[in-house]
């Protein structure tokens, strides 16, 4: 066991394997002390965030650690509510002025819904976007992982939405078909994803993770840099309905559908590289939080 200086100069003991809270930005995160180390006569602690990949482990000073007590649990909930409430207010506000020009009038706040993706949503005849059976299976698996198995896409994703779109453009460039329209649509899709993720692309079970990652950071985080092809595909299947609501003319719709079909083919061809075969269990603490919402 190691004694270290707390925030007010008091001696606080932390030991390897102990469950603690770590302050980061405006939130507290559950973590485990991996080991302690002394550098320049100062004790530091290597911690592992519970439910996160090892690459997010970090070494912190004692003033960022709190004992896992009922008091700190309540503080964590209070801080989370302060983060979530403003974000929900933003979600309820009109996002139209923030959307790319091509999608300016789109306004859909219903989310992806908690039901299994409908046949009409997956039908090429209904959507004008042809999805290979593997992509349809991906959408169903995605729904089951999150809503039935209580699993989450581990974040940040690699490749991210931004990286997937850039790779798609590079692939088209090598094939000699990366025209100006393709680049504009890719950029518009990226911008739209950043705006739309929190309002229409998440299952309820994913919202706490979203608020922790996107709104819980001290620096601005773009969803397209953090989320991956799993959530991008959700947007692609919603585009036909969104374009109709946006009153996009037939000629422009035809162009967008053409590019989206090409992107869908790219996702199918590179599915093993861009989609996760399995999601990560959310953990008991996370599941408990969602029940409190």
Write up this protein:
The protein is an alpha+beta fold. The model is unreliable at 6-10 and 83-110 (pLDDT under 50). The protein has helices at 70-92, 119-122, 124-127, 133-148, 161-174, 180-200, 207-215, 223-226, 229-245, 250-269, 271-274, 284-292; strands at 2-5, 11-14, 19-24, 27-39, 42-49, 58-61, 65-67, 151-152, 280-281.
CATH fourth-tier homologous superfamily of the largest domain? MRG domain
Using the 3D structure, state the CATH architecture of the largest domain.
Orthogonal Bundle
Query: Total number of β-strand segments?
Result: 9
What is the average per-residue confidence, as pLDDT, rounded to a whole number? Answer: 80
Numbering strands along the chain, what is their spatial order in the largest sheet? 6-5-4-3-7
Name of the top-level CATH class of the largest domain: Mainly Alpha
C-alpha geometry: elongated
**Secondary-structure element sequence?**
EEEEEEEHHHHEHHHHHHHEH
Quickly count the helices. Answer: 12
Structural class: alpha+beta
Regions with little confidence, pLDDT below 50 for 5+ residues: 6-10, 83-110
Number of domains: 2
**CATH level 3 topology of the largest domain:** Enzyme I, Chain A, domain 2
The Cα radius of gyration reads 22 Å
Helix content: 40-55%
Distance between the termini: 36 Å
Main beta-sheet strand count, sense and barrel state: 5 strands, antiparallel
Percentage beta strand: 15-25%
């Amino acid at each position: 066991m190691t004694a270290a200086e707390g925030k007010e100069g008091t001696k606080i003991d932390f030991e390897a394997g102990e469950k603690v809270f770590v302050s980061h930005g405006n939130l507290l995160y559950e973590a485990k002390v991996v080991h302690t180390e002394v550098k320049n006569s100062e004790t530091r602690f290597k911690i592992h965030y519970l439910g996160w990949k090892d690459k997010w482990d970090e070494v912190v000073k004692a003033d960022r650690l709190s004992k896992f007590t009922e008091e700190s649990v309540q503080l964590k909930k209070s801080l989370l509510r302060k983060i979530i409430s403003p974000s929900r207010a933003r979600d309820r506000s009109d996002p139209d002025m923030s959307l790319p020009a091509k999608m300016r009038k789109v306004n859909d706040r219903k989310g992806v819904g908690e039901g299994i993706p409908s046949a009409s949503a997956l039908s090429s005849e209904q959507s004008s976007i042809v999805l290979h059976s593997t992509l349809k299976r991906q959408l169903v698996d995605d729904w089951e992982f999150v809503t039935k198995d209580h699993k989450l896409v581990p974040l940040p994703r690699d490749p991210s939405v931004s990286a997937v779109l850039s790779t798609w453009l590079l692939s088209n460039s090598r094939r000699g078909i990366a025209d100006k329209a393709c680049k504009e649509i890719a950029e518009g899709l990226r911008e739209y994803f950043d705006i739309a993720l929190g309002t229409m692309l998440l299952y309820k079970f994913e919202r706490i993770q979203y608020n922790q990652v996107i709104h819980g950071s001290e620096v601005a985080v773009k969803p397209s840099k953090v989320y991956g092809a799993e959530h991008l595909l959700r947007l692609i299947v919603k585009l036909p309905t969104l374009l109709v609501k946006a009153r996009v003319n037939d000629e422009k719709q035809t162009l967008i559908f053409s590019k989206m079909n090409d992107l869908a083919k790219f996702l199918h061809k590179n599915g093993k590289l861009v989609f996760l075969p399995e999601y990560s269990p959310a953990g008991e603490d996370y599941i408990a939080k969602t029940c409190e919402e």
